[in-house]
Amino acid sequence: MTLWKNYYLAESILAALQALSEAGDPSRLIAGGTDLLLDLQQGRHSPVHTLVDVTSIPELNTIEIRGEQLFVGAAVPLTQIVASPLLQYHGEALVEACALIGGPQVRNTATLGGNVSHALPAGDGTIALLALDAQAEVASIEGHRFVPTESLFLGPGKSSLDPRKEILVGFYLPLVRPRQASAFRRVMRPQGVALPILNAAIWLFRIDDRIAEIRVAIGPAGPRPLRARETENALCGKSLTPDVVESAFGALLSEARFRTSPQRASAGYRRHLAEVLLEETLQAAWNRAANDNGLKPMANG
């Protein structure tokens, strides 16, 4: 069975957008293809007319500081994200998340944009980006727009992006400052592709012995990746004591919607794991913030 008719290698964002608009229906963007090609081969996605390859577009393959933000192109392979000194300093949670996606062969090909575009409630890269307060850049024929990464998700496997008219260009992360740090942790089964039973990412700003600011993301805890704002409110302004962690866990249970998955875990088991995962991720970010990350800010590279 033919899975696609035409394959177009775009060398610019405009060329890719024009190819999408002119191609027969349906057409799809492709970068690493680790999700799309598997879905096509296994019949979970209907055959497409045209695949538009964006891996040769320079802007989508860039990691660089732009003003007060760090830009990460949507087509950057996960291996490059894990190895980037800039991201190891400014986005440690994202580095830790990408290091756990698939195996080495998958990470050499899979991209951050693909991880987000697949719109899974527990996408590792997605959960890290939410905690890091990343803004997404989206291109169309009409121009570029910048939106919170959180707004890209409509439901399980459903992205708000229009696959025929829009391209995810990349993500902007705030640069880390002294006493700010992030961490990512997950619980997974060791066999197969090791999909997460539960994952979490936390960014925090520590002043002395209290949390001045914090962002918490967790998944799967509902139909979309969850930015746990009630949990954040329970932690903000507090010291990291057992009572505070217990209160935060109660807030998390009030806003998370854990469900039973025959392939992964029961809702009850996820609730049980959530407290351990929250505490472990919190402690990692808290300790890193006390050490000013142990690194010096670096120039582009």
H-E string:
EHEHEEEHHHHHHEEEEEEEEEHHH
What is the count of DSSP helices, taking H or I runs of 4+ residues?
A: 11
Q: Residue share in helices?
A: 25-40%
When the domains are counted, the total is: 3
Mean pLDDT metric: 90
Question: What characteristic shape results from the CA principal axes?
Answer: globular
Q: Classify the fold: give the CATH topology of the largest domain.
A: Uridine Diphospho-n-acetylenolpyruvylglucosamine Reductase, domain 3
**SS content category:** alpha+beta
Top CATH class of the largest domain: Alpha Beta
User: Which strand order do you get reading across the main beta sheet?
Assistant: 4-5-10-6-7
Span between termini: 44 Å
Instruction: Give the name of the CATH architecture of the largest domain.
Output: 2-Layer Sandwich
Can you characterise this structure?
- The chain is α+β, with helices and mostly antiparallel strands and 301 residues long.
- The chain is 33% helix and 28% strand.
- It has helices at 13-22, 36-41, 78-83, 85-90, 92-98, 104-109, 112-117, 124-131, 229-235, 242-255, 267-290, and strands at residues 4-9, 27-30, 48-53, 63-66, 69-73, 135-140, 143-148, 153-155, 158-159, 167-174, 180-188, 196-207, 210-219, 226-227.
- The longest helix has 24 residues, at 267-290.
- It is globular and about 60 Å long.
Write the layout of secondary structure elements.
Elements: E1 4-9, H1 13-22, E2 27-30, H2 36-41, E3 48-53, E4 63-66, E5 69-73, H3 78-83, H4 85-90, H5 92-98, H6 104-109, H7 112-117, H8 124-131, E6 135-140, E7 143-148, E8 153-155, E9 158-159, E10 167-174, E11 180-188, E12 196-207, E13 210-219, E14 226-227, H9 229-235, H10 242-255, H11 267-290
Parallel strand pairs: 1-3, 2-3
Antiparallel strand pairs: 4-5, 5-10, 6-7, 6-10, 8-9, 11-12, 12-13, 13-14
